[in-house]
Amino acid sequence: MASAAQSCTESNELQLDSRDNYWFGGWLRWVPTSNEMLRAAEEKILGYVRNTYRSWFVKTKSGDRIRTIFMNNSESDDKTPIVLVHGMAGGIGLWVQNLDALSNVRPLYAFDLIGFGRSTRRKFPSNADDSEKEFVNSIEEWREEVGVDKMILVGHSLGGFLSYSYSIHYPERVKHLILVDPWGFPERDVDFYEKHDFPLWLKVVRQIMITFNPLSGLRAAGPFGLGSGVERVVSYGRIEPWDWKEGMLTTKLQLHYCSIATVLLPNLTDPVPKLQLHYLICLN
After folding, report:
1. Distance between CA 166 and CA 126 in Å, rounded?
2. What b/e string do you get for 132-145 counting C-beta neighbours within 10 Å, with b at 16 or more?
3. CATH number of 5-280
4. Going along the chain, which residue ranges are E strands?
5. CB neighbours of 206 closer than 8 A, spacing ≥ 6?
6. I want to staple 71 with a disulfide (CB 3.0 to 4.6 A). Which of 2, 59, 67, 103 is the partner?
7. Angstrom distance (rounded) from CA 218 to CA 199
8. Are the C-beta atoms of residues 71 and 53 closer than 8 Å to each other?
9. Average model confidence (pLDDT) for the chain?
10. What is the pLDDT of residues 225-239, one digit of tens each?
């Protein structure tokens, strides 16, 4: 395992409102997550990285703190770096099976998108297009602060969607664009309402779905949510034990990281459902 050169400080840590983590003024911890558990989950999953990495928080001009790691085992500083952009309910830890191999080839960066992992969680606009712009702007501000001129941008899932959007806005900064199972949406029909006469009940369902956050159910379930579900599935033998087996990270460790780092960590203004529902609901 690698020993990371940590440069983050407590003042850079993601600060959570205690009201989001506890019931009855802290007597009971209903949502099984905390800043300390989040840090521990990241450290545990990145503990399987063999190459040395540096981790820190990049502060952007908008005031966001973006959790970042850098690796370079290629013995070359001149190559265009790879930048990894994770998907929904993810973070830098989910690239753990790729970090060593990629950093052996060229310099490598990975970061937590705002609203995910250990990066800043702030209020996003209610409009999905505006939320998308904030994501793209945060990536560009991150690039400026890190000092990367051009990059090989690799985006997975939601990260693929945002990487593509970033490449449209800042093509001069992207040498190559690699999309791994990316989100994709058709262009919305602005005359959709006029072309279809939908029943009232369907319009009501649409309004409910637009305001619904799919991650809220897991958070409301607290200790009976995703984390507990993973334990039960593993106990029934449906998922292999929590270990490093034949070079492949097991499902349980990945789900544990996701549940602590993203799904269960309170964030009442999640941008992802706004983006997702905005494009997926047919009435939009």
Report:
1. 20
2. bebbbbbbebbbee
3. 3.40.50.12270
4. 5-6, 53-59, 65-71, 82-85, 108-111, 151-156, 174-180, 244-245, 248-249
5. 281, 283, 284
6. 103
7. 31
8. yes
9. 75
10. 655 555 444 444 444
Where residue 88 falls among pLDDT bands split at 50, 70, 90? confident
For 179-190, write each residue's pLDDT tens digit.
999 987 767 676
Domains of the chain, by residue range, sit at 5-280
Q: Please state, in angstroms and rounded to a whole number, the distance separating the CA atoms of residues 278 and 280.
A: 6
The tokens for 189 are 């029909």
Q: Which residue has the tokens 């990145």?
A: 46
Handedness of CA 192, 193, 198, 204 (dihedral sign): positive
Coil, strand, or helix at residue 46?
helix
CA neighbours closer than 13 Å in the CB half-sphere of residue 210: 15
Residues 171 and 150: beta-carbon distance below 8 Å: no
Distance of CA 21 to the CA centre of its chain: 20
